[in-house]
Amino acid sequence: MNIFRLVGDLSHLLAIFVLLLKIWKSRSCAGVSGKSQILFALVFITRYLDLFTNFISVYNSLMKVIFIASTVATVYLMYIKFKATYDSNHDTFRIEFLVVPVGGLAFLVNHDFTPLEILWTFSIYLESVAILPQLFMISKTGEAETITSHYLFALGSYRALYLLNWIYRYYFEGYFDLIAVVAGCVQTILYCDFFYLYITKVMWGKKLSLPA
Amino acid sequence: NDSDVNKDEL
User: What are the structural domain ranges in chain A?
Assistant: First the structure.
């Protein structure tokens, strides 16, 4: 474990709970893409299947449980409890256009052709594009609530910190996983446009609105 | 190959 990975995991945890609290407190999921949340739930479920078979540490197991539970809870709040506030008219990204190609790629490019490894690879590839429905929804509505932009900033920062973690681990531990690094770069690049808007607008107290 | 390395990352 290193500081980049620890801060990255905490940033990820923060993002998930900022969103969960926003929906719970405001009793509304306006401006939030349910499709992205479904993809994130799929990412965690396919990645943490080894939760009961491969114990790494208390921290590792605890975080896996928290990530799965909080993301499933978010999906529940969006599609069941506060379904009336779900903005399905703007959350129109066709996620099958993500899941199918990513599934195919996981079969073709992986470290090991075993079910668990292919599911892990699928999860890594899917996570890199899972935010697209959310970014697409913001581009359609033209703006995002400030709390939603904080959620996105923390979520985007987590994988950027993981990139630093991989640089650290490469030089100090000789650890390198090309699949995770490439997917992590794609994932972080997708946030660049948002990071620019966040830093130039939200940091100065303005609302995040995309140029019309 | 990498898959043998324990997947210790989240």
Answer: 3-204
B5: chain A residues, CB-CB within 8 Å: 175, 177
Average pLDDT over residues A180-194: 97
Cβ–Cβ gap A162/B9 under 8 Å: yes
pLDDT for B4 equals 53
Long-range contacts of A202-209 (CB under 8 A, 24+ apart): A202/A146, A202/A149, A202/A150, A202/A153, A207/A143, A207/A146, A208/A138, A208/A143, A208/A144, A208/A146, A208/A148, A208/A149, A209/A142, A209/A143
- Each residue's pLDDT tens digit, B1-10: 445 557 999 9
Contact residues, A window 76-95, toward B, CB-based 8 Å cutoff: none
Q: What residue of A is the nearest CA neighbor of B7?
A: A56
Average pLDDT, chain A: 96
Residue type at position A133:
P
CB distance A111–B10 less than 8 Å? no
